[in-house]
Structure formats: C-alpha cells, structure tokens
Amino acid sequence: MSWMVTGGAGYIGSHVVRAFGEAGIDVVVLDDLSSGHRDYVPDGVPFVETSLLDTPAVTAALREHGVTGVVHLAGFKYAGVSVREPLHTYTQNVTGTVSLLEAMVAAGVGNLVFSSSAATYGTPRTDLVTETTATSPESPYGESKLIGEWLIADAGRAHGIRHTSLRYFNVVGSGTTQLADTSPHNLFPLVIKALSEGRTPRINGEDYATPDGTNVRDYVHVVDLATSHVSAAQALEGGRELERVYNLGSGDGLSVRQIMDAFAAATGQDFTPEIGPRRAGDPDRIVADGTLAARDIDWAMRHTVTDMVASAWAARPRD
C-alpha cells in the first residue's frame, strides 16, 4: 500500500503527507513547486517534481512507486485571482485532473481522495451547508472544483476508480512550526503579516447579522483536515463504500472578531482592528455541517480557536 499526494509540498498537502507517515502508510509526493516548498517534504519521502499536466511523467511515477491510491490536492487555489485568470485556473484544475485520471487508469490505480472545496456551493441560501445543499459556484475556481468532482465520478463509473471528494472552507493552523500557510490571500497569513510588520489588522465590515457584527465562517485546523484525508484513503483501500462527497465543517463557525481576539491573546499584542467597508457579496454566515464525515472518515474538530491561532503564529515565516 503506497499513496501519492499531489500538491504534497504545499501547506495542506504537507500535513496530509505527515498524517500518512504517522499512520504507517508509505507515501510519495508529486508537486511542481509552483506554490509548494521543497523543504516541506519530509526526509525519506520520495519526491517527484513534475507538472500534473505531464501525463506520461505522472503515469511513470505511479508505476515506479507502486501507488495504490492518490490524494489529489494539487491545483490553483485562489478564488479571487481565478476571476482574472480563468483559463489558467481551468488548465491547472480541470485539465490537470483529467491528466491525473488518465495516468491512474494507465497505471491501474483504483483509489482517489479528491480535495475539493466548499466554493462549489457559492453563496448558499442556508447558513448551514450540508452535502445536499445545491451547488452554485461563483468563481472559476469553484467551478473548476465542481467539474473535478464530476470528472472523478464519471471516471469511477467508467473505469472502476473508487473515490470520494472532501469539501471545506478555511484551513488554518499548523501541526509543526516548520509548516506555515504562505498564501497571500488567506485571513490568517494576512493577520500574521500585519502584526509582524507592526500594522493593525483589518476587518471588512462590522454590521453583519451576527452576534458581534462580523461575518462568521468555518475555520478548521489543518491537522484535523489531514486526519480525515488519510482516514478516507484507508477506507477506500479497505474496500469500504464512502459517500461521493463529504463536508469537513465545524457546524458552528467563528466570527472574524473572534479570530482577531484570539490573535491578540496568542501574540500578546493588544490591538483594536481597523474597520473597513464590507466586501461585495460577503454573506453574514456560512458554516458547513460535518456530521456525515464524523460518521465515516474520523472527522472531528479537535483543535480550538486558540490552538488554531497559536499554532499558526508559532509557524509564521521569519526573515
């Protein structure tokens, strides 16, 4: 039993790789390092530096390492940027998934865990999202993830690939000080960068219909997320039937002000966030229900908001 993690040199992927190691499962990383970091791959883990679009190279890697399943995390993950760069987004996320599926069929690899996104839901009419909530993505990124799910389901029917797709919102925290979220667009890195540079973090809007006026979102710890990716892989490898889609959600969410308060406490920097205008289209509250995932793939919110913030701060990049 050996699993490949595409995008395994990235923030989430590197945590999934470590979770596989802790479970005693052999793993190989495939990453083109367009946003990943070579030093995020643990010593002793085979590393294949190639583009997912290079189908022959991916096929060769699957065969060479005796891969029996893939956790597919590689892709272009910036929803806002995807609006300006839709063709790049579709090439990386849709064509890349087609290439991976072709390679898996050619190499006889029959198990796939797809790291999808709650961006597939767009702005749902309900503030608690379940797996039956209608999908209505609002960006090329969200669309590309939904198309990826369709492609995988079609390949499952045609070629017998066993699969499941995991949807989630905001991934935060760190399992080790060596692995930081370096995204230039995510809330936690933006707050950390501001505090590190002596600037005051900013909240976009404080007049939402929520208890403290700031919008509420799902924030899940990256280690909890990685645990469920590996659990899903083990279930597929063991022949268990899984749902086509699972939400990895908290069920209640956290407000932006709660996040800011936690940062002030964790860093010892007492600050009052600047208040800016609302961002267009930002709903009051979107939270995912993780009941099905808790039942089937060891999903649990094992980390508090304090854990999330403290671990992210401890892993912050230092020049």
Walkthrough of the structure:
The chain has ten helices and 15 strands. It folds into two domains: 2-171 and 219-247, Rossmann fold, CATH 3.40.50.720; 173-217 and 250-287 and 300-314, UDP-galactose 4-epimerase, domain 1 (Alpha-Beta Complex), CATH 3.90.25.10. A seven-stranded parallel β-sheet has the order 3-2-1-4-5-7-12, sandwiched between helices. A four-stranded mixed β-sheet has the order 6-15-10-13. A two-stranded parallel sheet has the order 8-11. Helix 1 (11-22) crosses helix 7. The mean pLDDT is 95. By secondary structure, the chain is α/β, with parallel strands linked by helices. The chain has helices at residues 11-22, 55-64, 79-84, 86-107, 140-159, 187-196, 222-237, 256-267, 291-296, 305-314, and strands spanning 2-6, 26-31, 47-49, 69-72, 111-115, 128-129, 162-167, 170-172, 202-204, 216-217, 219-221, 245-247, 254-255, 274-276, 285-288. The protein starts with a strand and ends in a 5-residue tail after the last helix. This is UDP-glucose 4-epimerase. GO terms for molecular function: UDP-glucose 4-epimerase activity.
